[in-house]
Specification:
Blueprint: H1 3-23, E1 29-30, E2 33-34, E3 38-39, H2 41-44, E4 46-53, H3 60-76, E5 83-87, E6 91-97, H4 102-110, E7 115-119, E8 132-133, E9 160-163, E10 176-180, E11 187-193, H5 196-208, E12 215-218, E13 221-224, E14 236-240, H6 244-255, E15 263-271, H7 276-302, H8 304-326, E16 330-331, H9 333-346, H10 348-362, H11 367-403, H12 406-437
Parallel strand pairs: 3-16, 8-9
Antiparallel strand pairs: 1-2, 4-6, 4-15, 5-6, 7-9, 7-12, 10-11, 11-14, 12-13
């Protein structure tokens, strides 16, 4: 075995082993990452949230910006195949498939993501307290007649707390998940940093108020009121939370952009699966039937190369499923259709290669020379057909992304990914297997390749 074939075989073995590990991972966890299959709204149901702007002067441009911000936040939650679309002039419809914590998801969606530090005037305000600030004196959570309450120090209805920082000065690139090491036990936290005037004011206030409380406010709601132990000279620090869920909610609101307009939830309703388990089962049967028919065709028509191509197709399927789990890709029915279609495209390259192999062998070349020429001569056609399909997938994906047609994105993504994986299995896997099998070839075993020199010679350079 030459070093080239050995290296390729090792690569194939490692990739296949990783794919098997991901697909058969105990508890559907791989290196601490959840690798369970994600199903879309059409297959497993979810929730639909209608958000409305509370600002009567909201412009269409602001609502479009809000739509993009909401989309980024939803993606950060790990929810795929979502629908975030405008409804009228001041509303957004958000559909979330299979969310595990609907309350957290809804809170993350409606928060504007405005982080402030305020001067509580020496009093402690309990987490969850809604307050008015000089930067946001009329939050949507409070009407003019509502009272701000706190567990230990109720605030007067007309109290407006002085804002030390402005949310617009938050450096979103510095917002990261972290662990607070203060005290006896560590706690989940979010690091932050302010720029410009906010950083200066924060440094001045903390330097002048050591030992006094300073409240952290997110969207006019108290997150915590820690005691100032030292001056925050660089305008940065951490926000401690009680759980990773709280940390992730705050992180998503801060990092993925502030909403240009305040939004409130108008309605929330559960959506049942429009297609459900029966469609999933039917898709699985269709996939198995497709794989079986393609495998039988390849074996009966191309014989030993067909067997090797079928083995490569099995590796292709393992890698595809592993990537769907690991990336992760949320599977909808169109996405599953894209995968099933890619099965046929996955063997297209093998058909071209095997056809060229037969032609070169009938022209009088030995099996190894025919094999190498088969790959070289068929590569331009394989490359061009794959690129053209990938271009189509890219156009479909961009169209679905820009116009909110997410089901098109699922189809384009699974089909495009299938094309890339098929290039690996055809150019690397099948080629390596055929090279390893070439030394076993003899004229008496030519039938294993479905070729025979006694067949009529094809016209070519040798005949000239």
């Amino acid at each position: 075995m030459r070093s080239r074939e050995l290296t390729s075989l090792i690569i194939i073995a490692v990739v296949t082993a990783l794919a098997l590990w991901i697909n058969l991972a105990p508890g559907q966890m791989f290196l601490g990452r959840d690798v369970s299959f994600r199903l879309g709204l059409d297959l497993q149901g979810g929730i639909q949230v209608l958000l409305r702007s509370t600002d009567p002067a909201t412009t269409p441009e602001e609502m479009e910006t809000a739509r993009r911000v909401i989309e980024r936040r939803v993606n950060a939650l790990g929810v795929g195949e979502t629908v975030v679309q405008l409804a009228g002039n001041d509303r957004l419809i958000v559909e979330l498939p299979g969310v595990e914590n609907p309350e957290q998801a809804v809170d993350t969606l409606r928060g504007t993501g405005r982080l402030e530090f305020i001067d509580p005037q020496g009093q402690y305000l309990a987490p969850g307290t809604v307050v008015r600030t000089t930067s946001s004196p009329n939050p949507p959570q409070l009407s003019a007649s509502e009272t701000v309450t706190a567990t230990t120090a109720p605030a007067a209805p007309d109290t407006v707390f002085t804002s030390i920082t402005d949310g617009a000065d938050l450096d979103t690139s510095a917002v990261q998940p972290t662990i607070s090491q203060g005290g006896i036990t560590s706690r989940p936290a979010v690091s932050f940093a302010f720029r410009g005037d906010s950083a200066t004011r924060l440094a001045q206030f903390t330097a002048a108020n050591v030992g006094q409380p300073m409240c952290i406010v997110l969207d006019n709601t108290i997150v915590s009121c820690p005691q100032v132990n030292a001056a925050l000279t660089d305008g940065s620090g951490v926000i401690e939370t009680n759980s990773t869920e709280d940390r992730d909610a705050i992180l998503n609101q801060l990092k993925y952009g502030a909403l240009p307009v305040p939004l409130v939830i108008e309605t929330t309703r559960a959506i049942t699966a429009t297609l459900g388990q029966e469609s999933v089962q039917a898709s699985i049967v269709a996939g198995i039937v497709g794989l079986t028919v393609v495998a039988l065709f390849m074996i009966l028509f191309y014989r030993l190369p067909g067997v090797l191509a079928t083995l490569a197709l099995a590796i292709y399927t393992l890698i595809s499923f592993a990537l769907y789990r690991f990336i992760p890709i949320t599977l909808t029915l169109p996405g599953i259709a894209g995968f099933i279609l890619s099965i046929g495209l996955a063997v297209d390259a093998n058909v071209l290669i095997f056809a060229r192999l037969r032609e070169e062998y009938r022209r009088g070349r030995d099996i190894r020379g025919a094999l190498e020429l088969g790959f070289e001569e068929s590569w331009p056609a394989i490359r061009d057909s794959s690129v053209s399909t990938l271009i189509t997938c890219a156009v479909l994906f961009v169209f679905g992304n820009n116009f909110g047609v997410s089901i098109i994105q699922g189809f384009a993504l699974t089909l495009g990914l299938g094309i890339l994986i098929s290039l690996f299995t055809a150019v690397v896997v099948t080629r390596t297997f055929l090279r390893l099998a070439a030394p076993l070839f003899s004229e008496q075993r030519a039938w294993l390749y479905g070729i025979d020199r006694r067949e009529p010679q094809l016209a070519g350079p040798e005949a000239a």
